[in-house]
Amino acid sequence: MVYIALLFLLVGIELLYFKIADKYNIIDKPNSRSSHTSVTLRGGGIIFPIAVSIAFFLGYVSWFVTVAVVLVAVVSFIDDIKPLSQLPRFVSHVIAVGLIFYELNLFYEPLWVLPIVFVLMIGWVNSFNFMDGINGITVLYALTAIVSFSFLPINETSLPLLITMGLSCFAFGLFNVRKIAKTFAGDVGSISMALFLGYFMIKSIIDSGQLGYILFFSVYGIDAIITIINRLLRKENIFQPHRSHLYQYLANEMGYSHILVAFIYAGLQLVINALVIYMGAKGYLTLFFMGGFLVLLTFIYLLARNFVTRKMVLRNS
After folding, report:
1. Closest CA to 56 of 44, 68, 46
2. Confidence band, pLDDT 50/70/90 cuts, at residue 204
3. If you write DSSP's letter for every residue of 126-165 in order, what string do you get?
4. Between 113-130 and 186-208, two packed helices, what is the crossing angle to 10 degrees?
5. Residue 188 · residue 76 · CB < 8 Å
6. What is the pLDDT of residue 30?
């Protein structure tokens, strides 16, 4: 009953935000680099940091994690309304990651560990933000990760928090997983959710001593890294918006439904995560398996990307 009431509360908060966004013209207008064609309310992902705040008041999450998520959300929301320079956004990310490090006692780890985890965390947050491009993809992928974390025995005590965040995904998804979305997550949603997921990834790895759980982010991670490499080879500014992720090719150039592509990404990741959880339970989730599996996934991704780009060339010729 508590979770049902919480779901209704989150949906109500989302509807209230829509009225505010509509009144103050917080909208996302399509441009040449957009994957949508109609004006859409921006910042519906504000429900994610709100859910973390509710979880804090219910005693599900610590002060440090809450402040970290809310901090990046506030700065990102300002950026959604009026674009900010890189500096305030980067500073907020650094402070937030520092709070996460403090929460997870990472400052007691060997010094060489900190810069590696910091770079990975910042890279993940920004990659997840850049991948927020078509209807449903961010929320379905986030929900896949949350469900996967929930199945790990080490996260049993965190289930109330994970369920709360899962409900926030459902509330947002009601208005985003549509052919014509009513709202987009915006930076406020994608960055705050990325930080939350990154926190749980590090927490799960530390608590279990199992690095293999990083495969929970492998579909997004491989697409993001290969796309960045391709853009660097083309001497493009990787910090500028673009339409060169594989999912964007599928949705924009190939004409597949946004929702179908989003479900493919989330579904593939869910299958991978189920395998990872099974291998972990059986004690087979070794570094050798993780490395070999990443190579296999990368090879499959490159084949798929090459196939799609060839089809695009043929269609445009």
Report:
1. 68
2. very high
3. HHHHHT--STTHHHHHHHHHHHHHHTSGGGGGGHHHHHHH
4. 140
5. yes
6. 56
- Residue 135: partners with Cβ closer than 8 Å, 6 or more residues away: 36, 176, 177, 178, 179, 180, 181, 258, 259, 262
Q: Give the sign of the dihedral formed by CA 198, CA 50, CA 168, CA 39.
A: negative
φ/ψ of residue 34, rounded to 5: -85, 155
Cα 255 from Cα 246, distance rounded (Å): 12
Query: What are phi and psi for residue 316, nearest 5 degrees?
Result: -90, -10
Tell me: pLDDT of 212 over 50: yes
CA angle 183–15–60, rounded 5-degree value: 95
Six-digit token string for 172: 């947002």
Burial class of residue 234, CB neighbours in 10 A (0-12, 13-18, 19+): exposed
Which of 186, 196, 178 lies closest to 142 in space, CA to CA? 196
Domain ranges of the chain: 2-316
Q: Is the pLDDT of residue 276 over 70?
A: yes
Whether the predicted pLDDT of 130 surpasses 90: no
Digit-coded pLDDT (tens) for 95-107: 999 999 999 999 9
